[in-house]
Amino acid sequence: MDETTKIIIVVVAAGIFYFRLVTLQWGKAKKYREANEELARQASVGKKKKNQPAPPPAPTLTFQISSWPLVGIGVALVIIGMLMNLMGANVAAWLPGWWWLPTAAGLVVMSFSFK
Known about the structure:
The protein has helices spanning 3-45, 68-87, 100-111. The protein is mainly alpha-helical. The two termini are 35 Å apart.
């Protein structure tokens, strides 16, 4: 397999990782916007009553890690792929050409460890 093809595979895996983070961010931003619109509608309908509960706190737009083991596995795979690429033929005769596989797999695994 050509080096360019391997790099393209790793770039696509990185794109999957970042696209997953972006879609999570869009979903949280949409929920935040809808919550603000609902509060604005409630405020415009009438005056606040004495016993009306306080508005819920604003949701955070940060990411949460849903599985720390997946993060660890993903980071380990990326580091293994990086070391395989850096060490070249010193590792084993059949390993140098396969550096892209653990690197791409690590990125894809890490993309599913966030919520």
